[in-house]
Each structure stands twice: as structure tokens, then as C-alpha cells.
Amino acid sequence: MSKGTLAVVLSLGCAVASSALAQDPLMKAAQEQFRPIPETAPELPGNAATPAKVELGKMLYFDPRLSASHTISCSSCHNIGLGGADAEPTSIGHRWQHGGRNAPTVFNAVFNTAQFWDGRAKDLEQQAGGPMVNPVEMASPATHVVEQLKGIPGYHDAFAAAFPDQADPITLDNAQKAIAVFEATLITPNAPFDRFLRGEADALSPVQKQGLSLFMDKGCAACHNGINIGGGMYAPFGVVEKPGAEFLPPGDQGRFMVTKTPSDEYVFKVPTLRNITLTAPYFHTGAAWDLRQAVAVMGASQLGIQLSTAEVDAITAFLGSLTGEQPKVIYPILPPSVAGTPRPQP
Amino acid sequence: MSKGTLAVVLSLGCAVASSALAQDPLMKAAQEQFRPIPETAPELPGNAATPAKVELGKMLYFDPRLSASHTISCSSCHNIGLGGADAEPTSIGHRWQHGGRNAPTVFNAVFNTAQFWDGRAKDLEQQAGGPMVNPVEMASPATHVVEQLKGIPGYHDAFAAAFPDQADPITLDNAQKAIAVFEATLITPNAPFDRFLRGEADALSPVQKQGLSLFMDKGCAACHNGINIGGGMYAPFGVVEKPGAEFLPPGDQGRFMVTKTPSDEYVFKVPTLRNITLTAPYFHTGAAWDLRQAVAVMGASQLGIQLSTAEVDAITAFLGSLTGEQPKVIYPILPPSVAGTPRPQP
Predict the structure, then answer these.
(1) Model confidence at A46: pLDDT above 80
(2) What is the spatial distance between Cα A259 and Cα A269, in angstroms, rounded to a whole number?
(3) Which of residues 90-149 of A touch B (CB under 8 A)?
(4) In angstroms, what separates the C-alpha of A259 from chain B's closest C-alpha?
(5) Mean pLDDT on B47-70
(6) What are residue A328's phi and psi, to 5 degrees?
(7) Tell me: the pLDDT tens digits for B61-103?
């Protein structure tokens, strides 16, 4: 076969595939608004993943000694077994203080435009530095994180392997880099909806297809779109009608607190809806325990419509198709503390 | 080769092996007092392990929703990554209360004569029920544990698979059984000392052999013996000389609080020394952070001797040979909460 013939065959192959897709208008419409999760972790700009760096990041992610009390790790609130989040309205942190907002899932967070509900961290690397030093979360003073890590002998080799060109690799910046490359592996491909997006028409049930159709037609997808079905933009909570204070307490002005721009009052990052059935409770307050209720509140507050029970059910069924393969993580063996390791703060 | 010849060859093989062992008096003496950890999990009487039961037990072990707050799991204080214990003097529990005693390692706990520092639980099954309902630990009322589990739909199938002959398998008793069979898999075989016990003379370094020799000659092995180098008996802390109140606070009378027998005052279960370098801090108070210090205190309080620095160093080096292969545990994916799942108590 000549090169020319091959090119013709390939392009014919493509033509056939896209014509098959085009026959299903719902699939075609969905393909225009959403993208499937890839099978492999994306690369982070300026922070190449190596097995040693991913392994170090996993150790740090699970190490409670990064907190002042030595009891709270990234994993405490972003639990691999619970959809990458926790089962709390707001997480419990240092000395049983409650965090201000519901812990977002770490799964697929790498695909979000920015991190935190208010987008105050531009990426996973920057995000990873936040909770460690937040006084209501892990509560470690920033300078202490490095002292703590340097006081655990096994981390010397682990950082040297992850950052082989550096003379003094145990730094907060490198810890954040390593955590970020590990977190980038926490993706959940092959949800039924992803298989549907890839052309598998039967991957969604009839009611899920009906829900997808409503999700696009009613306007949900105006914000919840792209690879993470959310996570790509900001929106005011209550764009049409402000919900009650249980869902939108006046004390939390969202992105306004970051930008100080009046139009950002009560603006939040649109959360991903991937794996949403695994991560109750919902909203930045974690005040909605029932996904159906959350869907109905969104309809009223964001779209100004009263969804019928059947519509809520169908959309909720569609949301169930967003649960992908959960990451398979082998629990890391952490380097032990020794006599000289800095001790937990009571 | 006839059957008879084979038997002769085999018995000759055995004779050669035991004569080789007998040539090393240290190895021979050690083999009389200690036993290696097996490669596979032991069976629990009346609680046969099946893959479904072990998997359920793992889920329960990692599920923070067994605690009132939904933030504390077995894994919080018995961390697979930290030698099966935590890095605290005493663990932090419900509403930031501190437990009364240092969290013992779950690793190889199946080989202990009894569980808890005061032996108040006869086995892993009985132990597993303790922390869930202890008000300073996980703080779930006993009746609530079952309500909680029944309120998580995914547990219905998981319990049915683990206890296939039962009509209503979600019970506290079954939860404890499942946790126990999972915990029985958390064993750490093939420590250098185990390889030495199996005849590998070079598995210990010269200083470790010197330490082993001291460990037996000075009397440490009178209590710390058997498969777990401890865990097989009770002993008064301060049998010769009471240590200071930092190590033996007068308020905690140990096994006396269980048996009310005067001779049990300040009696505690002799802890395992397996993986001891991974589980600082030490003693039931967790007041000793330095393993060398713990060895010296034991010499003075239990044996009435002042160990020299060189002796302490050699014994500590020997203790380093008790670190076995750490369990390889894939983080379990937990069944999600739904709208009707009982919610965390604040």
C-alpha cells in the first residue's frame, strides 16, 4: 500500500467514524460541550512527573506529620476512599476547628481552571501549600514544614530521588510540587458518560440520556461543561434568585474576598460534577445532603426554573453516569520519626 | 528412587540442617525463645477469612463514618504507613480529646495473647468494638454503628458477601469479625531477625548479634519473647524500680483497673517489639521518644541494671532487626453516603 493510499484509507476511516457519531444528535451535542477524562495523568507545566516524585508526593499526601498535631494529612479531608473528599459539611481541622467551606474533591482537580472554591490558587502546586499552613486546617507554620521533613531521615533520600539535581531538595516548594504530581494521578477515567462521549451509545441508560438532554437544554451545561463538567469558570451563586442563608450564608462572599471586585460578590468556582454521587454533602457550605435537592436548588437559583420531580430525577440519573474508575492507590509506607524528629504540638 | 530411599534422604537433609543450626549457639538460643512471623495470615478461631470478609474488614477499618464525627477511623490511630500506630504520645479522638494510652501497633497484633495495654479484650474481634464506642475515641453509640452502616447502601451487598448465610448480616458483631480478619492480614514477615531465626546467620550484623546476646543475657527476653518479642504476658512496670511519673503516672493503674486484683497494680501487657523503630513514641504513656532512652529505662526499672551506652546501642541495633516487610494495602473504595445516610454529629 502506498503512502497515498494509506492516507485515503485513514481519512475515510475518520469520515465513517464522525458520520456514525453525527447520527446521534444527543451524542454530537454532548461532544461539543464535554470532553472525556484521559486514561493517563496529564503533565504539569514545569513539574515533570517521575516515579520517584509521584511516590514522594504520595507519602507527603498521606503524612499526618505535615500538620502541627501530627494527626491531619491531605488524605484526612481528601479521602481516596470517599470520592477524593470527606463526608462532612466542612472538614474538621486543628483542635477540632471547622473549615470555612466544604472540601472539594481532589479527583480530577488537575483539570480545574484554578483551585479552592474561590480560585485563590492557580494550580495544584499552589493549592498544596494552603491547608498545611492554614491555622484551622493542618496549622503548621510554613517554616516548620521544612524543619519537620528534615527531621525525618527517610525523607532526605526520598526528596533527593525526586529532585536529583538539587543540593538541598527538602523545601516547601518541592513538597508542593511532589504533592501536585501525585494528585495529578488521581483521575477517574471511563465513567459511563466518558464512554458515551467516545461513541458508545449504550453507555448511558435511557433516563440518563434524558437527563443529559435536560442538563444541556435547561442551561446547566452553560456552567458545568468541559472535561470536568464544571471547574472551568466562576459564577455567582444565586445568579437568578439568591438561595436561603443555609446554602448561601452572607458571611462568605466567595471570590470577592480574593479579588475585592464588587461583581465577584458571592461568586464561586463552578464545581466539577464528576463523581458527584460519591461526594455528599454538596455546595460550598456542604448544606445539601441530597443530590436531588441540590439539583432543584441549582435550577431555581441559577436558572430561575422550577424543575419537575421527573426532571430532577433524570438529571440526577445523568449525574450518576459521571462516576469513573476510582484510583488504585497502594498505601505508602512513611519514613519513621526518630529521637530528633520535631514532635507534635498539642 | 524408592519411597524408602526418599525418606532417608529427607531425614538426612533435616539432620544436616539442624546440625548446621546447632553450630551457632546464639542462633540456637534465639530459636528457643523466639519464633518467626509466618508468611501468611493466621486463621482466627470461629471466624474464617474469605476474600469478601477481608475486603469488608478493610473498608470498615478505613471508614471514618464509624465515628460519631465521621472523621476518625481505625486507620487514624493505627496507620498502615506509620508502623500500624500513630506518631502521637496518645491519640487524638472525638472533639480533640486525648486517649489515655499510646496507640499500640495493629501489625502482628493477631499474635498477642490479648489486646489493649491492659489486656481487656481477649482478641482482635473484641478489641475492634472498643474504640468505635469509646467516647474519647470514635464516640459512636453502639446502636448507632449498625444504623450508620445500614444507612450506607453499598454495605448491604458487602456484608451479604462476607456473611452469606445470614438473613440480616449488618451487625456490630459481624463488623468486628470482618475488621479482625482484615487486621490478621497485617503481619510483617521476613524481618532480618526472622531470617536469622530461620538459619540465615548473616541476616544480623555483628552489633545486632551482640545486641541479641545482651537482650537474652540481661533478661529482656524474659518478658519480650515468643513470636511477637512481647505481647505474650503481663508485667508490672517498675518491677525492680518504679520509673518517674512521666513514664508511670500514678493515675493509670493498668491491669488492676480490669481485674481489681492488687497484684495487678501498674501491670501492663508486655508490648511487642516488632517494628519498634517505626512506632515512636514508646511506653503506655508515649513519653519516651528515643528508643535508646526506652531501652535504658527498661534496664533500670525492669531489670535493676544500668546498661552502658555501648550496651544500649547494641540492643537498639538488635531492635532494628525486628522491622519486617510492611503490609501492601490498596486503599479501599468506600460505599458512598446517600441522602438518607445518618449524618455526622458535630
Answers:
(1) yes
(2) 13
(3) 91-92, 95-96
(4) 32
(5) 98
(6) -100, 105
(7) 999 999 999 999 999 999 999 999 999 999 999 999 999 999 9
SS (H, E, C) chain A: CCHHHHHHHHHHHHHHHHHHHHCCHHHHHHHHHECCCCCCCCCECCECCCHHHHHHHHHHHHCHHHCCCCCCCHHHHCEHHHCCECCCCCCECHHHCECCCCCCCCCCHHHCCCECCCCCECCHHHHHHHHHHCCCCCCCCHHHHHHHHHCCCHHHHHHHHHCCCCCCCCCHHHHHHHHHHHHCCCCCCCCHHHHHHCCCHHHCCHHHHHHHHHHHHCCHHHCCCECCCCCCCEEECCCCCCCCCCCCCCCCCECHHHHCCHHHCCEEECCCCCCHHHCCCECCCCCECCHHHHHHHHHHHHHCCCCCHHHHHHHHHHHHHHCCCCCCCECCCCCCCCCCCCCCCC
pLDDT in tens, A266-309: 999 999 999 999 999 999 999 999 999 999 999 999 999 999 99
Q: Measured between alpha carbons, how far is A268 from A117 in angstroms, rounded to an integer? A: 6
Record: contact B289-A339, CB cut-off 8 A? yes
Asked if A279 lies within 8 A of B336 by C-beta distance, the reply is yes
Which residue from A69, A83, A330 is facing B328, i.e. has the nearest CB?
Answer: A330
Nearest 5°: CA angle at B336, between B330 and B339? 170
Has residue B112 got a pLDDT over 70? yes
Spatial distance between the Cα atoms of B302 and B89, rounded to a whole number of angstroms: 21
Cα A118 to Cα A174, A194, A343, B110: the distances in Å are 24, 27, 34, 48
Pairwise CB contact (< 8 Å): B336 & A83? yes
A264-298 burial, b if ≥16 CB within 10 A, otherwise e? bebbbbbbbbbbbbbbbbbbbbbbbbbbbbbbbbb
CA–CA dist B297, B299 (Å, integer): 5
In a 13 Å sphere around the CA of B281, the CA atoms on its Cβ side amount to: 22
Measure the N-to-C terminal CA separation of chain A; round to a whole number of Å.
74
Q: Which of residues 279-338 of B touch A (CB under 8 A)?
A: 279-280, 289-293, 326, 328-334, 336-338
What pLDDT score was predicted for residue B142? 85
Quickly count: other Cβ atoms within 10 Å of residue B143's Cβ: 10
What are the distances in angstroms from CA B55 to CA A215, A331, B72, B227? 37, 15, 19, 26
Residues facing B243 on adjacent strands = none
Per-residue pLDDT tens digits for B286-324: 999 999 999 999 999 999 999 999 999 999 999 999 999
Please tell me the predicted confidence (pLDDT) of residue A261. Answer: 94
Amino acid in the structure at residue A248: L
Residues of chain B in contact with residue A326, where contact means CB-CB under 8 angstroms, are: 333
- Contact flag A334-B88 (C-beta cutoff 8 Å): no
From CA B269, how far away is CA B116, in angstroms rounded? 8
pLDDT the model gives residue B313: 98
